[in-house]
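Q: I'm writing up a methods section and want to include an example of the input and output format. Could you take the sequence below and give the corresponding predicted structure tokens, formatted cleanly so I can copy it straight into the document?
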Amino acid sequence: MKFFFVALSLFCMLMIVSAFAYSTLKNKQHKDLCDKFHKQFGYVPNEITLFRSGGMLFTFQKDLYFLLPLIFKEGSFFVRNINKDYYTFVHGLSKKETSWIKIKFSLLIIGLLLVIPDYMFFVYFIKQ
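A: Here is the clean output for your methods example:
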């Protein structure tokens, strides 16, 4: 039982660390995406500029501006404050330009979701 807990804990940490490493490796794609946005609209959104200057702490927040339009329909609650032109811009990008964002967040979400059963396993089987 303890081996399962240790293995699951290591896998959770590996997924979360790999999400941060992947984010660091794909920083050039983020900059390219921001450059395209700047060329089309004449500026980079304040949210991206603010989070980009936050370094590693805000590495995932800086890409939310591009991720949310990719996964939610136009007019939904999560993208209600995004301009229609920005939404159309993000949807007009090729899969090659946006797939890294989905991979990055998938790694993070899997790691974070696995922490829940890991903690429950620890509380119910190991701690008692």
